[in-house]
C-alpha cells in the first residue's frame, strides 16, 4: 500500500491511497462470500451462489461496491495505525480508480489529532506572590462572623438608611391606571440594593415605620418587562416594617460562642493563622495559573473545529446547569439577554478555543514529563461518581465507560503535571516561601464540578485523552 499525506489547515489531513490490484481481487472474493451468505438466490444455498448469479440478483456493481467500501475502511485503519494518527471524524472519501486488475486509488480527508509543538514551559522568570495578612483582613473576617450572628431589631428613633431591612406596600399607576406587577401588600427589601427599579429605594431613605411616600419614576430602557421600558409610573409606598442589623459586640463572650476559644485574642489568633494558610494556598493556585498561561502562550497548535465545537457544547451545558440551579429556563434567559443560541455559541467560541488549547498543551507536557495516573486512582473517582450521581444514570454510564475513564485519567494527569511543575520550581528555589498543598477536596476531583457534569452530559471526548484507541469511528 502506498500513501501520500498532504497537511491541510486546522489539523486536517489528505491521504492519497494506492492499493495493489491483488488486494482488490482478494476483497472482491471476500465480498462475494459475505453477500452470498446474506442474499437469497433461487436454486442456491446461502453462501454457495456464484458471483454472476449474485450480480443478477443484487445488481452489477453490488459486489465491487461492497469490496471497495470494505477495502477502503481496512486501508484507512491500517494507515492510521501505522502513522500513529488519531482521526477525530470519519473520513471524506473520493475514489478515483476502482477497476478489477488495476490498483485501487482513492483519497481521504480527515481531521486528526493536532500536533502540539511545545515551547518553554518551566524556565519562567515570575515568582509566587503571597499576599500579606494584616489586621484589617482579620477584622473583616471577624466582622463576617459577627454578621452571621446578627439579629434584626426594630428601628424606632430614625428614618430608613442604607442597609436597613424594610417591608413595604405599594401601588403603582400609569396615567392613573394600575398595571400588572405594579402593586404589593408586603414586599421585603434591603434599602440601597436597588433590587426593584433603579432609583426606587432612594425615595424611601429617611422614611420611618408607617410613613408614606409618593413619587414618579421612569423605568429603564432595558427593563425586563418590555411594555414598561422607558415608561413613567407613579408610586404610593408605605413603610410597614423597618429593622436594622444589630451585630454582637466583639468580645470574649462572642469568641466563646463561635468555637472553643478562651477569649477574643485566641479567636483572632486562629483567624490570622487561617488567613495565612489561605494566602499560601491562593498564591500556589495563582502561581500554577501563571505557569499554565506561560506554557500555553509558548506552544503552537492548530485547533480542529470539531474539538472547539465540542467545547462550545460543554460550555453551553454548563450555562444550562447554572440557570437551572437558579430556577431559570434557557428560553427565558435568551429572551432577557435578547440573544439566539447561535449568538451565545459565537460568544463562547474564543473561550472554548482557549480551553481546548490549554487541555492539549497540558496533556502534551504530561506526556513529555512522564506523568502517569494509577488505575486505582481512576477507580476511586468512579466510585465517587457512583455515590454522587446515584440518581443520574446517564452521567454514571459516561464515567463508567472507557471514554469517561479516559476523561478522569487525563484530568488527573493535567492537574498533577501542573503541581509537579510548581513543586520542581519550589525545590529549585529554596529561598522562596513554601507553598504546601491543602488537603484534597471535591473541588479537585475530576468527576465533580460544572465542567465535569457538562462533559459527561454530552458524552464529550477529552481532547487530552485522544489516542488511536479513543479515536472517532473510521467507517468510510
Chart the SSEs and their pairings.
Layout: E1 2-8, E2 12-19, H1 21-38, H2 51-58, H3 62-82, E3 92-97, E4 104-111, H4 135-148, E5 151-154, E6 165-174, E7 177-190, E8 212-218, E9 232-246, H5 252-257, H6 264-298, H7 305-325, H8 330-337, H9 341-369, H10 375-388, H11 393-400, H12 402-428, H13 450-458
Antiparallel strand pairs: 1-2, 2-4, 3-4, 5-9, 6-7, 6-9, 8-9
Helix pairs in contact: 1-3, 4-6, 6-9, 6-12, 7-9, 7-13, 9-12, 11-12
Overview in brief:
By secondary structure, the protein is an alpha+beta fold. It is 46% helix and 17% strand. It has helices at 21-38, 51-58, 62-82, 135-148, 252-257, 264-298, 305-325, 330-337, 341-369, 375-388, 393-400, 402-428, 450-458; strands at residues 2-8, 12-19, 92-97, 104-111, 151-154, 165-174, 177-190, 212-218, 232-246.
Please explain how this structure is put together:
The protein has 476 residues and is an alpha+beta fold. It has three domains: 2-111, Alpha-Beta Plaits, CATH 3.30.70.1050; 151-246, Chitinase A, domain 3 (Roll); 266-470, Trigger factor, domain 2 (Orthogonal Bundle), CATH 1.10.3120. The chain has 13 helices and nine strands. It has helices spanning 21-38, 51-58, 62-82, 135-148, 252-257, 264-298, 305-325, 330-337, 341-369, 375-388, 393-400, 402-428, 450-458; strands spanning 2-8, 12-19, 92-97, 104-111, 151-154, 165-174, 177-190, 212-218, 232-246. Strands 5, 6, 7, 8 and 9 form a five-stranded antiparallel β-sheet that branches. The protein has a four-stranded antiparallel β-sheet with strand order 1-2-4-3. Helix 9 (341-369) crosses helix 12 and helix 11 crosses helix 12. The longest helix has 35 residues, at 264-298. It is elongated and about 105 Å long.
